[in-house]
Amino acid sequence: MSDAVSPLARPFPAMPPIGGVTLRVARAGYKDWGRCDLTYVELAERTTVAGVFTRNVCCSSEVDLGRANIAQGQARALVVNAGNSNAFTGYRGRAAVEAILAQVAAHLGCPPEQVFVSSTGVIGVPLPLDKAQAGLRAVFEAAPCGWEDAANTIGTTDTFAKGASATAMVGDKKVTLAAIIKGSGMIAPDMATMLGYVFTDCAVAPAFLQQLLSAANQSTFSCITVDSDTSTSDTVLAFATGAASNAPLTSFDSPGADAFAAALRDVCLQLAQLVVRDGEGAQKFIAVSVTGAVSDDSARRIGLAVANSPLVKTAIAGEDANWGRVVMAVGKAGEPADRDKLSIGFGGVWAAREGQPLADYDEVPVSAHLKGEEILLEIDLGLGDGRATVWTCDLTHGYISINADYRS
Amino acid sequence: MSDAVSPLARPFPAMPPIGGVTLRVARAGYKDWGRCDLTYVELAERTTVAGVFTRNVCCSSEVDLGRANIAQGQARALVVNAGNSNAFTGYRGRAAVEAILAQVAAHLGCPPEQVFVSSTGVIGVPLPLDKAQAGLRAVFEAAPCGWEDAANTIGTTDTFAKGASATAMVGDKKVTLAAIIKGSGMIAPDMATMLGYVFTDCAVAPAFLQQLLSAANQSTFSCITVDSDTSTSDTVLAFATGAASNAPLTSFDSPGADAFAAALRDVCLQLAQLVVRDGEGAQKFIAVSVTGAVSDDSARRIGLAVANSPLVKTAIAGEDANWGRVVMAVGKAGEPADRDKLSIGFGGVWAAREGQPLADYDEVPVSAHLKGEEILLEIDLGLGDGRATVWTCDLTHGYISINADYRS
């Protein structure tokens, strides 16, 4: 974790324990640092699991194996290595992950397919297996810890620990979700990786858990961007221990399924927004709200084109209501748009309506809004009912300093 | 033009006159500046024309009308307004362009469809028609000028004037091409626009000229990027006056067509690279060479994904051989790639081969290469014969300063 905390940071919330989930951390020494860097989460028997993974085709062996092992639907343990992503390390990298699976499986007496591993940090350096194995032996003996310790231990260049929780009523049982995430702060010029983990005591069938996680992902993690660069290791896993003893959720027909789905999306959204708040060099948190698109998916792609535009992001960093750059970014998105129906606004004030600057546009309230820390950029396409919100941060000198000024 | 010239600038070359082309400049006063900002190029009768235009769907009326008028294949004049892009200005913007077409057509006694107009500068402010009309009256009376004056006059926040020329033998006639371009330097936080114009005394049928320009564009202008943001006004036009009195080129079966096509691509490539050399905040000129892709088009898209990656561009700014970021960018391109066949090199030295870091990788020559001003980044996919080269610049504090530090 860095010394310079993001100005958009949030304090770590009070987070409840989750039945069937035990957290432990240890120091494997993946880098020459005096902090814990190995997180081990032991999960009760019959815990179900679902996951979403990076679409980067150069993904790590951790992602390859995780994607394959999700299919059997059960999980007994999660291991997270911080300080080395083990990506682009060929057969040696894969062998290291397989050895970790085998060691944890032997410890728990479970199939190796029920162990999930993530690694984050420098790319192209094979994970040192001796350190991983010694670290695992240490962590098996460590005392259980709390969420904040785990959130700090999975972090690399994050500037603050990130967690979220929620509850839902499922039948007459109250179920709880607790989740941690790391990502998007980069101080050393390594690759950022987003790793998120959601734990719940709710009993959920794995196929339904996957359905809910994939749906939540679409409007949360898939709607954030810091710099348009997709990591080789991005992973979000959801684990459901069943300790709440509710009747297992198997579909939206199950009592309480809607409430659980809403709670799951809620924690995913909280986590996703926390990653943006720790975006490299971020000074402003930006919501890009797109309405009137031909579909929700089209709205999301337009929102991402705007949120990824260096010219839009630098304009907001400069507190400049440069809506012409927004027009440009909408136009380059490759999605249906009609210049003469397009409207752009900031913080509730339209600057341009239906393809033209407003004659009575008042920049005073817009300028005041842009001086704030939370920016709302509104785009109406005037074509249909499609809508989406995308979250990003501004592009500042801090981004350049973090990624160019320091050599690895 | 800015005071701070790009460190990658090139001196303006000696450029020959082209028969049938007369250049004039005047001051319309689109901005409060003491420089010429209106360029008028008169073209001999029977000059043919071809063009390529931005794909941004929020394009300006200049682009709309230019695209429509290219179809009839003839041009008598080009007008370029600097200081106001006239984009996103609705019916008033379109009316201004139509008035300019009418005024020039009346002056020359030609159809308005044979007049081409470009505008570049701030977006969302209707072009002041009174200034345009007075400027045109002045420029009609102005003395002819040379290429460098015209190149300076079409510029906005460019830091140096950009031109290129070439010759080719067509039958027994020597034909000459001369070309100017503006773009990619931004000091005021307005939108950059790339406007390029190629003039030749070669006689070329308009359909064949369009075919050649479109082909040249594919491997030149479509292979450069500064910041991934596609302008609303990008335009490249080619004008062929026929003053060389060669037998008109109508297809690749015409004698000299290959030589002319090569010369046309050569000037387009020179212009495209000059735009990169004037990229916002650029300190290094980067060639991304992609080989072994499944197709040339796939290679180009992979090259652009790498050249647009903020993490790759900041790494090169930091003179850091961070090939892991290149792997990431290849993987996110959405094109066929196999992590375990991928190789990455800098300046002729492989850092990683077939999915793994090289055991005997020597970073010393790579570090020396990265300290230079001209960077070669090599990517081999190991899949097929597809290849492309893409050119870009690094991402530096200069980019942020230009686009965020100064309010409009």
The shape of chain A is globular
**H and E order of chain A:** EEEHEHEHHEEEHEHEHHHEEEHEEH
Which pair has the most extensive contact?
A-B, 67 and 67 residues
- How many individual domains of chain A? 2
Helix proportion range of chain A: 25-40%
Largest sheet of chain A: 6 strands, mixed
CATH topology of the largest domain in chain A: L-amino peptidase D-ALA esterase/amidase
Main β-sheet, spatial strand arrangement of chain A: 13-12-11-14-10-15
CATH class of the largest domain in chain A: Alpha Beta
Whole-number average pLDDT of chain A?
90
What is the structure about, briefly put?
Chain A has 408 residues and is α+β, with helices and mostly antiparallel strands. The first copy, chain A, contains eleven helices and 15 strands.
